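Quick one: co-fold with nicotinamide-adenine-dinucleotide.
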Amino acid sequence: MPDPPGDKVLVTGALGQIGTDLVQALRERHGSDAVIASDIRESAGNSSVEGGPFVILDVLDTDGISSICQSEGVGTIYHLAALLSAVGERDPDLCRRINVGGTISVLEAAKECNLRVYSPSSIAVFGPDSPKHATQDSPLNPTTVYGETKVTGEALAREYLERFNVDTRGIRYPGLISYKAPAGGGTTDYAVEIFHAALNEGHYQCFVRPDTRLPMLYIDDAINATLSLMDSSEDDLGESRVGYNIPCLSFSAGELVDAISDRVQGFTCDFVPDVRQEYADSWPDSIDGSLAEEEWDWTPKYDLASLVDEMLRGISGR
Ligand code: NAD
Ligand code: SER
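Sure, here it is.
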């Protein structure tokens, strides 16, 4: 294996919900110039990402990824470019092409340049036959195309690890809640949109029923988990390293509304379920993340109350 071209970091899909926070956290750690943000669209208006190098990069362009890694001296890729569940189910072919094709491109570039790869999975890998409290080894039979692409993403990451010795790692993120960038077209977007609506309009029309319970996490915990997994020694990581369940919160849409109503006077919410209800119903209510706790010692800091406080503080600029 050749040495990696350098020790810089490349982030794909950096303008999205997670990339906006992750690029900032990585730049605080490594320095702005050492973290190259990339996306298929222009970065205008994203102040987190504009604080350092940014390139337009389509993840389907394997040669383009390799060439940036060689010329800029990259050693690690955080591969975030994807279509999320709601957008993905509207165009399954495109979802497969970007989520599976993009992951293959990144892994091929990693094989060629000896790069480390972080490629997130999702709780969408589980389907209706999974227990409602999904364990690491619960069956992976999703009914969404998005979920299928995430199962395939884990399999590809495992294949490149085992066959080509590429250092691949990933977390099955739950619904992530953040305020710096809009949510990117997923089923769990209601848990982000609701905060903006509460503060700006005093009202939200929620697209899932109030009893819809899903695994969730505040973004700071998700970023911290990601960096913690990437910091871990390979010796500590077992077979689940390409798609760890992690400990997370579990609350219903109704409980979220109540927590916001306790803090935002006069806030009201009504519930008009659409097709995203089906996707939510096919996913677990909660996740057993005990393996991540055992293997790399990670637990979240935010509970529902502190998450709601942070979201309201962040959006209102307090
Ligand atoms: P997002 O939709 O907010 O951002 C994805 C980014 O990818 C966008 O900025 C988009 O422009 C970019 N992109 C799309 N096609 C591209 C292409 N061909 N080339 C390069 N860039 C392209 O998504 P996110 O919420 O930041 O999610 C990042 C990763 O985390 C995805 O793999 C997603 O499946 C996973 N994930 C997210 C959540 C969540 O709640 N946000 C939960 C579970 C898993
Ligand atoms: N939050 C994501 C979605 O709803 C789950 O991967 O699509």
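If it helps, The first helix runs from residue 17 to 30.
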